[in-house]
Write a structure and sequence with these properties.
The complex is a heterodimer of chains A (114) and B (109). By secondary structure, chain A is mainly beta. Chain A contains no helices and eleven strands. In chain A, the strands form two sheets. In chain A, strands 2, 4, 5, 6, 9, 10 and 11 form a seven-stranded mixed sheet that branches. Chain A has a four-stranded antiparallel sheet with strand order 1-3-8-7, with no helix packed on it. Chain A starts with a strand and ends with a strand.
């Protein structure tokens, strides 16, 4: 069966510090991968998605970046965090073949920038 | 991607059937309608997906009229554990999902 891991679960970082969140998927090959952010009381905002190694599409221009160094690894980074980067970050995957509206989400990382 | 409109919140009692309606007036021919459920501090979970008429699974039913400009998620006999945010999404030939603010369903005893 497929599983998705995210870490860390919670993170408190000062403004201006770097960020690295990691997501890995097991039990599937060539998945589509996604990073979302959810601010308190809001819906999910798609940040990045990837259909393959090294292929990243950015949905929202900001100080975040994403990388996919391996087939089932997706990393969200920032060089300098802003207060507005606080939120609940979710990684998700979907089947890579064809179009799939069924996405499977990880447990999330709650980031607080102080 | 078509825009969706759904109620911000709904209240219900245990054992009742709950119907959440979503409007998507600009739905395109190749768009599917998908519903997700999200509990606090968790990622959303896929509930059901449909294109037209009626779809039913072990969790819910999805009713889509002929014009497809709206859809209704039906949850039979809700329990306290069904308290969550429900998102209606419409998408076509792309893997991108656009989540709105959803409907907060509060089930009371």
């Amino acid at each position: 069966s497929q599983t998705i891991h995210q870490w860390p679960a919670t993170l408190v970082q000062p403004v201006g510090s770097p960020l690295s969140l990691e997501c890995t998927v097991e039990g599937t090959s060539n998945p589509n991968l996604y990073w979302y952010r959810q601010a308190a009381g809001r819906g999910l905002q798609l940040l990045f998605y990837s259909v393959g190694i090294g292929q990243i599409s950015s949905e929202v221009p900001q100080n975040l970046s994403a990388s996919r160094p391996q087939d089932r690894q997706f990393i969200l980074s920032s060089k300098k965090l802003l207060l507005s980067d606080s939120g609940f970050y979710l990684c998700a995957w979907s089947e890579g073949r064809g179009v799939s509206y069924e996405q499977y989400f990880g447990p999330g990382t709650r980031l607080t920038v102080t | 991607l078509a825009k969706t409109t759904q109620p911000i919140s709904m209240d219900s009692y245990e054992g009742q059937e709950v119907n959440i309606t979503c409007s998507h007036n600009n739905i395109a021919t190749n768009d599917y309608i998908t519903w997700y459920q999200q509990f606090p501090s968790q990622g959303p979970r896929f509930i059901i997906q449909g294109y037209k008429t009626k779809v039913t699974n072990e969790v819910a039913s999805l009713f889509i009229p002929a014009d497809r400009k709206s859809s209704t998620l039906s949850l039979p006999r809700v329990s306290l554990s069904d308290t969550a945010v429900y998102y209606c999404l419409v998408g076509g030939a792309t893997n991108k999902l656009i989540f709105g603010t959803g409907t907060l369903l509060a089930v009371q005893p």
